[in-house]
Design brief:
Length: 463
């Protein structure tokens, strides 16, 4: 009965059935959170672990059928590693290699030329959870931890039921956000609330995120059909003027990213409603509900900087990579090597297509050049005065166009996957993004020489 209804619903919405199942599953997180608040908040942890695990497994079965076995196997193996191998670096490395190899094997055996919603989608979220769990358990036996590590360090091995509840928690299983087992334990213990001993007063903050997520979903539904990925590979696109192709790339990126924005913001609302989004009291005395924030939508919409977009987008995954890859590579003693390694990890974590490598390579070079340009503007009296003059609105518009063009230029390989596809698009715009970045990089020292007083010419180190 459910299958024909879903088929009719997907036809009426003009969306693939797996996408409809995914959105429905994310929305189901809200009634799940309401049941938890109303009937289970005061129950024993074992009951809550069972509740979270069963609902998460039901969502997994609804979306992927028997393929939910992949996630169950990885959780069980992770539990055995922690129990049998102990609090050692060997456990961490074994966890990392097993979980990543399993994920990459899944990508290899299920890969197609299109973006498909299949079991590997939530599994990439689970992979980070389980690898992070191994690190947090290891940190629990170490000294000289930083504040962030102390917050997430584990003093003992969780039970298998607890790991299932953490892994399948309905607010984060399918699309994230990332959160630590310590945060989940605090949720189950009833600590994540603004009213000690009572369910959190989080309905209004949750509804705000829900409404914002629906708005983003509407924008995606309305505009994305006008900017399909497939249009890049048509003769019609190739026949358009150069300026049109560049504008299309910019608008395509803007509207297609709402696909991710809407899912993350709606999922965050379910986490806020359950209490997992509680983040203590801010400097102004107001209760914060941003612990699970994966999108800063206002920053995403208004920033003219590539770094600003990265800082506003998929926040928890970026924070996970910073905490467990970039900062763990401190012993290398070279931030550039750590940065490149982190981006490479994120590329292969997304999948095996060449487009992922190209996308994250472009991100690295754009960020480097953007930082050099910011330093130039800061150190040059002429450019600083222009940036603070009445000309700024014009500069802002130009910045935004360049920002979104380079965003789309970088993102396009990520979405087209295959080398022959994204190369065709790059050829159609004459590799203008690459040319722009290379020319800017080459002339930057000469611009500093011409525009910056001699005593300020050495580029300042970026923190």
């Amino acid at each position: 009965m459910a299958a024909p209804l879903l088929e009719k619903l997907s036809e009426s919405l003009g969306s693939p059935e797996p996408a409809v199942r995914l959105i429905l599953s994310i929305l189901i997180g809200y009634p799940c959170a309401l049941v938890y608040r109303r009937f289970l908040f005061y129950k024993a942890p074992t009951v809550l672990h069972l509740y979270h695990a069963l609902f998460g497994l039901a969502l997994a079965a609804f979306n992927f059928g028997t393929q939910l076995s992949h996630s169950a196997v990885c959780i069980l193996v992770q539990f055995l590693m922690l129990r049998l191998m102990g609090r050692t670096i060997t456990t961490v490395l074994s966890s990392f290699f097993f979980q990543m190899i399993y994920l990459l094997a899944g990508y290899y055996y299920t890969a197609t030329e299109e973006y498909d919603i299949k079991w590997t989608m939530p599994h990439c979220v689970l992979t980070l959870k389980l690898v992070g769990l191994a690190w947090d358990y290891y940190d629990g036996g170490q000294e000289n931890l930083n504040a962030e590590q102390k917050m997430s360090a584990l003093t003992s091995v969780p039970s298998l039921l607890e790991m299932f509840g953490f892994s399948y928690f309905y607010g984060g299983f399918l699309v994230g956000p990332q959160f630590t087992l310590r945060s989940y334990q605090r949720l189950v213990a009833g600590e994540l609330t603004d009213s000690p001993g009572k369910p959190p007063n989080s309905a209004i903050p949750a509804l705000k995120r829900f409404g914002l997520g629906l708005l983003c979903l509407m924008l995606y539904t309305i505009f994305s059909p006008s900017y399909p990925d497939s249009y890049f590979l048509t003769d019609e696109f190739q026949a358009q003027p150069f300026w049109y192709r560049c504008v299309f790339i910019s608008l395509w990126a803007k509207f297609n990213l709402y696909k991710y924005v809407s899912c993350w913001v709606i999922a965050e609302g379910a986490c806020v409603l359950s209490g997992l989004g509680y983040n203590g009291v801010g400097p102004d005395g107001q209760h914060l509900w941003n612990a699970c924030t994966n999108m800063k939508v206002w920053l995403f919409e208004t920033t003219p900087l590539f770094q600003g977009t990265i800082s506003s987008f998929n926040i928890n995954t970026n924070a996970w990579a910073a905490r467990h890859v970039f900062k763990r590579l401190k012993f290398v003693g070279n931030k550039t090597v750590s940065h490149v390694t982190t981006l490479f990890f994120l590329a292969i974590w997304h999948g095996l297509h060449s487009g992922y490598i190209m996308c994250f390579s472009m991100e690295f070079f754009i960020i480097i050049i953007e930082r050099q340009a910011q330093a130039l503007v800061r150190d040059s009296p002429v450019l600083s005065s222009m940036a603070n003059s009445a000309l700024y609105p014009v500069i802002y518009v130009v910045q935004q166009f360049m920002h979104w063009f380079l965003m789309g230029y970088s993102l396009m390989p990520f979405c087209l996957f295959a080398y022959e596809k994204w190369l065709q698009v790059y050829l159609s715009v004459y590799f203008c993004g690459h040319v722009c970045l290379i020319v800017t990089f080459l002339i930057m020292p000469y611009l500093r020489k011409a525009l910056v007083p001699q005593k300020d010419r050495s580029p300042k180190k970026e923190e």
